[in-house]
Amino acid sequence: METQEFQKRGEGTQRRSPFDLIMNQIRRKKSLTERRQRPSVTRFFRPSEDSEKRGKSSSQTKESENDDTSRADGKENLEPGGLQTAVCSDSAGGEVCSVVGWGRVKMFAQKLGKKPDSRSLSLNHCDLTATDVVELATMLPFLTLLEELDLSWNDLIGGALKALTFHLQHINKLKTLKLSSCRLTAEDLTALGEALDYIPMLEILYLSWNNCIGGNLHTLTHKLEVGCRVKELHLVDCQLTARDAKSLGERLCLLPCLEVLDLSANKLVAGGLEDLTQELKNNCRLRVLRMQMCGLQQDSICTLGNAFPFLSALQQLDLSCNKEAGGGFKQAAAQIGHLSRMQNLDLHLCCLTEEDMEGLNQVAPSLCDLTMLDLSSNKKIGRMCQQLFPSLPLCKMKRIVLNNCNLTKASYQSLGDLMLQLSELETLNLSWNKCVGGSLKLLLDPLQPNPRLQELKLSSCNLTTEDMVHLASVSKSGKLASLRLLDLTYNDTVGDQGWALFFQEV
């Protein structure tokens, strides 16, 4: 379940043992510490004057040699396009500083087991500390070509972001910034808001799984200004409140380029949905709207539906895991019909009613670009699917997910009759629908040779020995040549002979 996935992601880093984090830091820096340790003999004996002179002369010789070596290495490691610096005045000095600076960046990244790149720096899951953030900040002047910075899943850097944001002025070409699950504080969010002027080309911002954003989102949104280029805003499981939703709604007019808005797993956001929806109408470029597990109710669906006629570019709509939304789609169905470019509709685990399905059946022909439909875990819609299937754009459908929908024999028969038209179908999930048992041939016989079907899930479908024999025969004929995943778990109704014949043939 995707609901469980959200919970695991949100809680995974929060439950890590402090001892594990400390040990990771010790292991990372152990080798460096050992190298810095002086021999114990030097604690008791001081070198003579002559030896000091010899040491100095030899060290100077080594320095000059290392200088030449580092310069040569730096030129080899220099990324295409070069690295710039504002520290040195003359061109020769600038080249040296660039090489030295890139060497620092390379050592820093390699210490963390990462490969440096002048345009993309990924340091996620590196157990970064506040000290590491400060060190990284001092290297930003040597990364002027940087376009993507990923610091996600480093839950020890919370509270230290200001040290980094102050230096974002050196990477004003930055387009993607990822700070998911970093335990950001309210002060971090304020610092980030104040630094938005430094990165005017920012297009993608990930702030998901930072609980302290809840109640403080206004410190970021109030810093948005006209001309903002942000296209994607990800705020999954940030404990957003109704006030946050209202604050975001008030500033949506400053995000004319917004294409992706993900507010999933924020159960209190529904309280401010009316303010958010009112301004959402102006974001005509929005392509993806995700509000999974947001505590939406029947009236919330109706409120949100008022914006659909204005979102002509919307291609993906995810309203899944809103268990109290059932009954609200009956009235909102007419608005969903305006989403003619819709490609992906996810309404799983929404407790849909037969009235909801009746409304969706009526507007389904308007969704002529639909390629993915997920209605799984809605146990009351089994009978109504019989009218839904013929209304879908079958020749474009790539993914149909109907597990645990309590399909009836008539609905299953209707799907079987239309399998011949599902020429682009790649994924079909009918798990936990008992009507499939004993009638698998209705689904398999219409398949054409070399179809595109890659995933077929038939878990807990009460399959019989006859079904398994038929499945083996179809597989041998080449009709499942593209299949990569076949789920037949929890079918204890199949006899030993059926399994033996199936594995023998396959």
Please describe what this structure looks like.
The chain is of the alpha/beta class and 506 residues long. The chain is 38% helix and 8% strand. The chain is built from 18 helices and 14 strands. The protein has helices spanning 2-12, 18-36, 49-77, 91-111, 130-139, 161-165, 186-194, 218-221, 242-251, 273-280, 298-305, 329-336, 354-363, 385-388, 409-418, 441-444, 465-476, 496-505; strands spanning 120-122, 148-150, 176-178, 204-206, 232-234, 260-262, 288-290, 316-318, 344-346, 372-374, 399-401, 427-429, 455-457, 485-487. It has a 14-stranded parallel sheet, with no helix packed on it. The longest helix is centred in the N-terminal third of the chain and has 29 residues, at 49-77.
The whole-number mean of residue pLDDT values reads: 86
The number of E-state strands comes to: 14
- Major beta-sheet overview: 14 strands, parallel
Percent range for helical residues? 25-40%
Structural class: alpha/beta
Write down the overall geometry.
Answer: globular
Number of alpha- plus pi-helical segments: 18
Amino- and carboxy-terminal Cα gap: 30 Å
Instruction: Assess the beta-strand content as a share of residues.
Output: 5-15%
| Low-confidence runs of at least 5 consecutive residues | 10-14, 30-96
Strand order of the largest sheet: 1-2-3-4-5-6-7-8-9-10-11-12-13-14
Radius of gyration, in angstroms, nearest whole number: 29 Å
